[in-house]
């Protein structure tokens, strides 16, 4: 009796699968009409393109496409004059120099070179290649792949600008870094649309002030939108079969619109793994004990190819834990050999090891389940040890206006063992919702009560900096005033959703992009606050109103949620689960994503969060349109706080 873990979606029209297929079919099989089964090739990449490949494809898929060897462009390589080579490179001069070095002269390293550049190649580099007459006959193809982004998720990508928050919003006057970041980010965003053959209508968060009063940081979304629009508009004449009218929507926003999402505790399995465990990207290191030998260190990669991870990652941690034990208990109850291998009572890790020995045919499944049960157990232990339920409840209550100074002071006094990071995260949320509590010396007194170093106050002040205020002036005068969204009568950063969904406790919070995407899809996103580049040819499919006629949507009245606080994490199983797994989203949606309506892309400058990535999966199912999230990076709370400290530190120099 095997265990049902579900299966990752393999719909060829899902965002990441389109990118993967372009690599496997267009890049790795450039001369497929003439190929035979023995037509093995060498694949040569630079440090950047190897990451693109790593995120999009598995090594087995690359091998199946006819690649016998993967090489680093800048490492010494053995000549293979009887084999063809595929070069996948960024269009940089140093890369072209190495390429020509490989293929020029009397003894080239390879028989033929099929050259693919990740983005448009400058004319001067094309001329540079043409000038080497010995290389030209050896070039089998020279193409622009327009593939310069990392597909980190079925519906998510990053442009690999991990320091964008500091480079674009920090106090540095280095205009070259600023301009280069905008330019390369725009190029990489544009290549997503070139890859998909999609022409987007582009909208962006408008600057808050006029041209004479606004800061350059406040102009970042507009400048990026302009750069992206300029590039994709040229695709209409440079890329064959590229659409001439808008086929999708792109909304460009930045981290200042929602400073709570990067620091609040997100209670899904994925977010908890990256927040509480020491992970290296998607890698998790753990120990396996074997009888009569020392514990063995193993490495697990938590990615989409693991169907159990795909099923659970967007589930609430309590729900994920329940599902894991249900799967194991169901498996044990239907397997006599498994029943004989347990010690009685609930299934333990030791029982799982015995089951693996008794049922070797199920070893992969049981080991995968054992891994996730161990991870969930470790997370739940940390939740108890760190007192995260109480902290998380207060964070949610602050966001929805159900708590204030009394509750914050109480928890800082009563939880003396709260970690400095959790104290700072709580105070960041408090400062956003109650900015007046940090005016004058009030903020310093709160820092003293929390026993946090004075330097941490710089992080709170940086919240203003993200809003486009003059941080240096604020530091000199000692005053502090945050002007965040004051749309509610009571202090609250969110209005409770009234969609009738029952949710797990501690999961009321939602990222602001959820409201923006819903309004964009309905044609209700205010054009004044989110202007459009150019004039859209027509209303995109799936909208109910054109952007040009859309007006500001009225916010519902705030609703107190005190009556809905619950002491448990339980909820009815048949209720709508806003934290459900994204594998179910993809399984239950149509096999043809185009039939769901045109795609919506949202790009977050300065780092997106895992809650925002979860949101696009949730809304894809809800709105019957594929939503894709792009960002300069994906940041967990420690990374975001570290970047904020870098901005504060740079300002104090």
UniProtKB/TrEMBL annotation:
<feature type="region of interest" description="Disordered">
    <location>
        <begin position="527"/>
        <end position="589"/>
    </location>
</feature>
<feature type="compositionally biased region" description="Low complexity">
    <location>
        <begin position="572"/>
        <end position="588"/>
    </location>
</feature>
<dbReference type="InterPro" id="IPR001619">
    <property type="entry name" value="Sec1-like"/>
</dbReference>
<dbReference type="InterPro" id="IPR043154">
    <property type="entry name" value="Sec-1-like_dom1"/>
</dbReference>
<dbReference type="InterPro" id="IPR027482">
    <property type="entry name" value="Sec1-like_dom2"/>
</dbReference>
<dbReference type="InterPro" id="IPR036045">
    <property type="entry name" value="Sec1-like_sf"/>
</dbReference>
<protein>
    <recommendedName>
        <fullName>SNARE-interacting protein KEULE</fullName>
    </recommendedName>
</protein>
<feature type="compositionally biased region" description="Polar residues">
    <location>
        <begin position="538"/>
        <end position="552"/>
    </location>
</feature>
<dbReference type="InterPro" id="IPR043127">
    <property type="entry name" value="Sec-1-like_dom3a"/>
</dbReference>
<dbReference type="Pfam" id="PF00995">
    <property type="entry name" value="Sec1"/>
</dbReference>
<feature type="region of interest" description="Disordered">
    <location>
        <begin position="634"/>
        <end position="653"/>
    </location>
</feature>
<comment type="similarity">
    <text>Belongs to the STXBP/unc-18/SEC1 family.</text>
</comment>
């Amino acid at each position: 009796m095997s265990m049902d873990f579900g299966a990752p979606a393999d719909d060829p029209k899902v965002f990441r699968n389109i990118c993967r297929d372009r690599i496997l079919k267009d890049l790795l099989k450039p001369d497929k009409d003439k190929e035979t089964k023995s037509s093995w090739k060498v694949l040569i990449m630079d440090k950047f393109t190897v990451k693109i490949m790593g995120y999009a494809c598995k090594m087995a898929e690359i091998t199946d496409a006819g690649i016998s060897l993967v090489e680093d462009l800048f490492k010494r390589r053995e000549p293979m004059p009887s084999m063809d080579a595929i070069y996948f490179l960024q269009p940089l001069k140093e890369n072209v120099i190495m390429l020509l070095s490989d293929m020029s002269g009397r003894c080239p390293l390879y028989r033929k070179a099929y050259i693919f550049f990740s983005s448009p190649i400058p004319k001067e580099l094309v001329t540079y290649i043409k000038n080497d007459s010995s290389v030209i006959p050896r070039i089998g193809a020279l193409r622009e792949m327009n593939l310069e982004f990392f597909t980190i998720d079925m519906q998510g990508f990053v442009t690999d600008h991990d320091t964008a928050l500091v480079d674009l919003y920090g106090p540095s006057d280095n205009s070259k870094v600023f301009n280069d970041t905008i330019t390369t980010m725009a190029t990489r965003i544009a290549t997503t649309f070139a890859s998909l053959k999609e022409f987007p209508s582009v909208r962006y968060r408008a600057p808050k002030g006029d041209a004479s009063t606004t800061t350059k940081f406040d102009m970042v979304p507009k400048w990026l939108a302009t750069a992206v629009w300029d590039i994709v508009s040229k695709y209409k004449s440079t890329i064959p079969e590229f659409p001439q009218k808008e086929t999708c929507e792109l909304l460009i926003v930045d981290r200042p619109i929602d400073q709570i999402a990067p620091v609040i505790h997100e209670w899904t399995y994925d977010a908890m793994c990256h927040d509480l465990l020491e992970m290296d990207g998607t890698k998790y290191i753990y120990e396996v004990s074997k009888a009569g030998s020392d514990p063995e260190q193993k490495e697990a990669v938590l990615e989409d190819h693991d169907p159990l991870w795909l099923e659970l990652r967007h589930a609430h941690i309590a729900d994920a834990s329940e599902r894991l034990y249900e799967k194991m208990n169901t498996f044990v109850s239907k397997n006599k050999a498994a029943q004989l291998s347990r010690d009685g009572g609930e299934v333990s890790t030791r029982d799982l090891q015995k089951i693996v020995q008794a049922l070797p045919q199920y070893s992969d499944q049981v080991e995968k389940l054992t891994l996730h049960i161990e991870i969930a157990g470790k997370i739940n232990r940390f939740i108890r040890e760190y007192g995260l339920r109480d902290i998380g409840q207060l964070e949610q209550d602050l966001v929805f206006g159900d708590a204030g100074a009394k509750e914050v002071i109480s928890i800082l006094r009563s939880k003396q063992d709260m970690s400095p990071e959790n104290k700072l995260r709580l105070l960041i949320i408090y400062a956003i919702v109650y900015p007046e509590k940090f005016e004058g010396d009030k903020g310093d007194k709160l820092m003293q009560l929390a026993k946090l170093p004075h330097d941490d106050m710089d992080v709170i002040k940086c919240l203003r900096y993200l809003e486009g205020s003059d941080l240096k002036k604020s530091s000199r005068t000692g005053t502090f005033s945050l002007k965040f969204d004051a749309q509610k009568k009571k202090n609250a950063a969110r209005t409770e959703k009234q969609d009738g969904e029952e949710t797990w406790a501690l999961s009321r919070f939602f990222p602001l992009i959820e409201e923006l995407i819903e309004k964009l899809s309905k044609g209700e996103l205010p054009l004044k606050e989110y202007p459009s580049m150019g004039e859209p040819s027509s209303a995109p499919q799936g909208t109910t109103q054109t952007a040009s006629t859309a007006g500001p949507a009225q916010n519902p009245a705030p609703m107190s949620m005190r009556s809905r606080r619950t002491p448990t994490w339980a909820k009815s199983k048949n209720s709508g689960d806003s934290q459900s797994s994204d594998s179910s989203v993809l399984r239950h949606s149509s096999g043809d994503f185009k039939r769901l309506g045109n795609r919506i892309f949202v790009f977050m400058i300065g780092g997106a969060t895992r809650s925002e990535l979860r949101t696009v999966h949730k809304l894809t199912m809800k709105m019957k349109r594929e939503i894709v999230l792009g960002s300069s990076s994906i940041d967990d709370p420690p990374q975001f706080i570290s970047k904020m400290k870098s901005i504060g530190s740079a300002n104090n120099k």
